[in-house]
Structure formats: C-alpha cells, structure tokens
User: What shape does this take?
Amino acid sequence: LLVWMMLITGETGLLCQTTLFNKSYDYQMQLETGVAVAELKQGYLFALKTTGPTYEQNRIILSRLNDSGDTTWTKAFFTDSTVAFITPPMLEETGDGNYVIGGVLRRPQDETEDGMLMKINPDGDVLWIKTYGGTNLDGFRSIKKTPDGFILGGYSLSNSPQGDFYLVKTDSEGEVEWESHIGG
Assistant: This one.
C-alpha cells in the first residue's frame, strides 16, 4: 500500500497545500459569484459578478484584498442601468502593471449586447472601456494576453441568426487589429 501511494503522489510523498485565508465577501446583500483572481505583489485583485432581483442589477465588482484576505477597497462598475457580465477567466494582467476585464455589456436603451474590454489600474480606476460587435448579440467568454495586445473569443449573432464564434484581436490599447466570425 505504501509503495502504491508513493507512485501516485510522487517520490516526495504526500504534498499538502496551505490555506492562507478562508473568507466570505458580500456586496450590498446581492448574490455574488467570484469569477477571477489575480495575485499582486501585495495582495490580490478579486473580480465578482452580482445578480440582483432585477436583470439590471447584474454588475461587475472588483475588490482589492491584502495578503490576509481583508478587503482594502471595493468598486462597482456599470452601476447605472447598464447590465454587465463577466465569466471566468476574464481578468488578465496587461504586462504594464494594469489589468483588463472582458465580458458583455447590455444597455437598457437598446436590445443589443456588445463584447466589452475594460482596462483598470491596480487601484481599480478605469483607464478605458471598449466595446465590440455588430447590431445584435455579441459577447466574450475568453481573453488572453498576446505579446502585443489581447485576443478575445466569444459569440456573435450579428452576422448569422444561428450564431457564430466571434474572435477579436486588439492591440494593447484595445483597438481592433482584426476580427473574425466563424461558423453560421
């Protein structure tokens, strides 16, 4: 039995993980879901999404945590009647000490959704927000840093009612270098 365990766990025996902290976070008594975390030099950047009683209460919440998991600040984005969604893993370090968050924006004045990319600094200040897509439902579910910008993947119903895979390549400032609709 001991030999079998050593083969399964490796030559060093059982490896254990250490729990640094175990905490719960709440934002204005709404249903929150943690969707991404980034480790900083000191602490963490924690992205959550909220779901409220009405569709318009879907927000992006960003919290800065210290090394012990205590909240140093919390900021809510799109607190007007804009609906914002993010899904993991949509928080990415930019390489210049800042971060981007990708997702979906829906504005109440129209019935469309746009893919969204927002750049923030480590204090949660918005540096810019860009939207992408056509005249129908478009959004992102994945983001990756490239050597010169970002690539975002998601969905689009703007070109085809059946939907397409939507791929957008941007530069480091979120400007579109190319986009592609695949499928139909």
Notes: The CA atoms of residues 134 and 158 lie 5 Å apart. Helices lie at 2-9. The two ends are 55 Å apart (CA to CA).
